[in-house]
From TrEMBL:
Organism the protein comes from: Mycobacteroides abscessus subsp. massiliense
Protein's recorded name: Copper resistance protein A-like protein
Superkingdom, natural source: Bacteria
Disordered: annotated segments: 18-41
Composition skew (Polar residues), residue ranges: 25-41
Length: 41
């Protein structure tokens, strides 16, 4: 999943789709999720 933002206009995208139109990630009860944060210039 690629989370990106334009801080000038507060536009957020998930995998290139606007935040309010993006399909949320799915998980099942008991399933473990691992998130890795990477800062790019």
């Amino acid at each position: 999943m690629n989370l990106a933002a334009d801080m000038m206009h507060y536009n957020w995208t998930i995998n290139g789709a606007p935040f309010d139109k993006a399909v949320p990630p799915q998980s099942s009860q008991g399933q473990r999720a691992v998130l890795t944060s990477t800062k790019t210039p």
